[in-house]
Amino acid sequence: MPAPKYLTIKQYLFNEIASGRWTEHHKVPSENQLATQFSVSRMTARRALQELTEEGALVRTKGLGSFVASFKNQSSLLKVKNIVDEIELRGMKHSCELVTLEKRSSNPEVSVALSLPLESPVFFAALIHYQDRQPIQLEARYVNARLVPNFIEQDFTKITPHEYLAKTLPLTEAEHVVEAVLADRQVLHYLKLNPPQACLQLTRRSWSSLGVVSFTQLTHPGQHYRMGSQARFGD
Amino acid sequence: MPAPKYLTIKQYLFNEIASGRWTEHHKVPSENQLATQFSVSRMTARRALQELTEEGALVRTKGLGSFVASFKNQSSLLKVKNIVDEIELRGMKHSCELVTLEKRSSNPEVSVALSLPLESPVFFAALIHYQDRQPIQLEARYVNARLVPNFIEQDFTKITPHEYLAKTLPLTEAEHVVEAVLADRQVLHYLKLNPPQACLQLTRRSWSSLGVVSFTQLTHPGQHYRMGSQARFGD
DNA sequence: GAGTGGTCTAGACCACCCC
DNA sequence: GGGTGGTCTAGACCACTCG
């Protein structure tokens, strides 16, 4: 029982994208080209393209062709948590203050999160996101310095760290954990809150094909932030 | 430009399920039966079944047939938050204590949440869920009494309210909001906590085809509860 | 008009399940 | 063996985009 042909094609396309050889908006081969190239019928080639489209890796337009999707739109979960989009959706202005941006050596916790040896080079960034003038998120982020060597040279008041990463390399996977925590001294200070304050804390790890890229803690004051989601059954 | 044939078939199947005429585990027509019934090729009938399967409405087994999926497994979001499964997944024992179960008249907040006129009949249930002997979730639930008239007669130490609802009528849609809150006096008391305590609060509304069925607040102590999720790119 | 994706057909072979 | 879903083919017509 050999692997299905459509899967072979799908994996070929996926590898081209995950490896970074085809980046955002790259035009991928048409159904007919793939059918010829892999000696299959058009319907079989089509299935590979179709499934990758449903999974968010490709965008297809009638009469135009199939293209690698924007990395920032890959995952609905990632999208849900893009704070800039959310704030602008509410018609408010997003701004960002850089608190820290420096090179560090990974401590045990960070090493585990990034799957790196102890004392590996990592970048650490701390930022405060504002909605209009109100602080709404504290972002503490560790980045694998080997995978994204230019991270530390960016101006994160102009582009958010997540946007920079998504622009720079193909993020292929993400893991999220959400929990409620009491704000500690630092959080109270940066978000200008009075104790006791419950905060929603989102911990995210994101991957590229080469490994864990980034480990991030996003902390929001509970009464100012809600994460919503809708699940629908059928069409 | 007439509607695609596969969509017509898909909508037909969906209506049978959403209306409740076909319930959990009901065997749906085979690819060949649908092809004959709708005068289309097998590939077209197949597409309707296939898409409903990807959307979680059907389960298909080679050699056996296609069946209406368990309502409790319809949505990954719903599944994530099924506390019984989560506790048992951890190898611990779930139990449940009924605090309140009574008929009420909807106040403004509940009326809005359930899309009902003021002073409509609703049922209210309050329960504490335990993981082994530790309280881990406070559930406060309002149910539209007209849609689920027998709700109040159930024994919720044997079946959870969500299980009962999912068993009784087809839940077609759900909306979730998660936020961090400080535990109030009542929550501290029922979950046996000391102030100040940050809690993760999940607010859920679930629909059937006839309207909003239920409006629920689930409160968990922050340090004992995490909601995880993974997003993957491609296969 | 040439190329693209969207839909559809009427066949085919296979692995699987149940009788 | 008969029915089921899983894969695959070699065609077809259409609507769309672009040059």
Automatic annotation (TrEMBL), chains A, B:
Signal peptide range: none
Span of domain HTH gntR-type: 3-71
MF GO annotations: DNA binding; DNA-binding transcription factor activity
A GO BP annotation: negative regulation of DNA-templated transcription
The keyword Nucleotide-binding appears for this protein: no
Entries under SMART domains matching the protein: HTH_GNTR, UTRA
Keywords in alphabetical order: DNA-binding, Transcription, Transcription regulation
Protein name (record): Histidine utilization repressor
Gene: hutC
